[in-house]
Amino acid sequence: MTISETLSISDRLSLRASKKRERPDESLVSFFAPASFEAEQYRGLRHMVEESGKRVVGITSPTPGDGKTTTAINLAGALAQAPGIRVLLVEADLRQPRIGGVLRVEDSHRRGLADAIADERLALSDVVRQLPRWSLSVLPAGRSPASPYETLHSSRLDELLEEARRQNDYVVVDTPPVAPVPDCRLIARVVDALLVVVAAHRTRRELLEDALSALDPTKVLGLVFNRDDRFRRGYYGYGYYTSEPKGRRMPVG
Question: How far apart are CA 143 and CA 90, in angstroms?
């Protein structure tokens, strides 16, 4: 094999890897599959938020892996589909940020929420990124702080979210899960409402109970049931949510 042949194979592999990275994430149904069953569920979630009158909504879950980040991104995408509506998606999970990578706005050299909290000279506009194809702005987590809890404990977080409220119609905040760390409880104090994402057949009941007991019940707008296929069978009968005493249960994904 010649050197030119080796380089040619290397180039083809690099190109293939590049195309794979550019391929949209299949979980972003609000953006890339708006006519799908799953996207309809996020529109139902959007309707719930619109009817509630809450403008700054936090998305959390009892444990990691329940689907909160996917729910936050798709809810923000669904809200942003309304004409003339400004939506900001905030990545407040500073320990395991994923939004920047999923939406391809991740850049270790660019600043985000943690940087704006640490440096009061940074305005919200200095750290927010606009997604060019959608009416949606994103505030990524930024560079990982040494102590996420202390960062989120700062009153600067309150100031930034208040600025976000003034500049947007809706602010969707992806928060850390409730059970492993206390960070979500700090964010809960500055949002209008919380949606708690539960993974069907995965999230243990006792962990959900612990999470709900750790949150202010007056702020829990409802539970979002992720990966529950039972509701797909009732789709054409429009039987895809039920009412609960503490808010609605909404199946998603």
Answer: 14
